[in-house]
Amino acid sequence: MQNNGKINLYFINILSNICTVLIFCDLIPLERISPDPESSIKILYHHVMPEVFLWNYHYHPEFELVFVFDGIGRRHVGNHVSYYENGDLVLIGSNLPHSGFGYGALGKHEELVIQFKRELVPEIAEFEIVNQLLKKAQYGVSFSNSIKKRLEGDFRKIKSMEPFERYICLLNILKKLAIESEYQILNSTQYQTSDFTKDQNRVLKIFQFVEKNYANDINTLEVAELSNLTLPAFCNYFKKNLGVSFTDFLNEYRINQACIQLTEGQSVSNVAFLCGFNSLSYFSRTFKHFKNISPSEFQNKVFEKKERR
């Protein structure tokens, strides 16, 4: 299992203009969910062009199980930002902020979302393994593609079931997920609202600087001076508050921007320089470090998906 979700997603949303209504942490919208008629569960099925929805950053008390059937898009859960490439299967805990999974999708986006309250899973011995899974969900859990393939049939049929059978099917899905070992915990720490209120203006100023200048050479000392800190104090401050070094944050932000440009058909070499990398080989190494795939392989996958649609 890997943990890559260390960058503060609240500020990533500002930088990427993902959430148009989110300015300060106390404005993260609460989504109010009403269960389906005669049911304790809400099921949403979308098969739409991604432009139909805003896919905004939001939260709700209900747990959420998201199954994206295929394609490429962006996964934003808590402090975690990454891309999925062959669909996705993610379990999101209560009040854990997240964006819709259709953001940045190519072609039609097909997903099924199951939203349910914590009390639907009894806290008794027979459900111990499922309750352990729900505890992990407070950090966000992404399951492997092989698990997703095995469970696709369950997600296909649950939306047409009667309420009682739907509830039993959900419990069976959770049980199957609970016994799996191929998963990734998306956040290293549990989300806390107070994390976003500490010295907000200083960090926001830093991130706005990165957004404006990521394509250029950025000297860490320059950013430290912008923050009214010495270089050592700035490095400690950034690592303490975001859980990642400034260099790693800058590189990951640049790589995420590179992914967007690669999906638009730019050449790998051109994207490297447009995203602030002076060396193509360094860009390729950095891209593979964050995405576990080379830039050219990523772009080939993108266009293979486009051709199949």
CATH H-level homologous superfamily name of the largest domain: Regulatory protein AraC
Detail the poorly predicted runs: 1-27, 194-198
- CATH fold field value of the largest domain: Jelly Rolls
So what's the overall shape? globular
Give structural notes.
There is one protein chain. By secondary structure, the chain is α+β, with helices and mostly antiparallel strands. The chain has 2 domains: 9-185, Regulatory protein AraC (Jelly Rolls, Sandwich), CATH 2.60.120; 198-308, Homeodomain-like (Arc Repressor Mutant, subunit A). The chain is built from 11 helices and 8 strands. The chain has a 6-stranded antiparallel beta sheet with strand order 1-6-2-5-7-8, covered by helices on one side. The protein has a two-stranded antiparallel ribbon with strand order 3-4. Helix 1 (9-16) packs across helix 5 (200-213) and helix 2 (128-137) crosses helix 4 (163-178). The radius of gyration is 20 Å and the shape is globular. The chain starts with 8 loop residues before the first helix and ends with a helix.
Topology:
Layout: H1 9-16, E1 41-48, E2 63-68, E3 73-77, E4 80-84, E5 88-92, E6 109-116, H2 128-137, E7 141-143, H3 145-158, H4 163-178, E8 183-185, H5 200-213, H6 220-226, H7 231-242, H8 246-263, H9 268-274, H10 280-291, H11 295-308
Antiparallel strand pairs: 1-6, 2-5, 2-6, 3-4, 5-7, 7-8
Helix pairs in contact: 1-5, 2-4, 3-4, 6-7
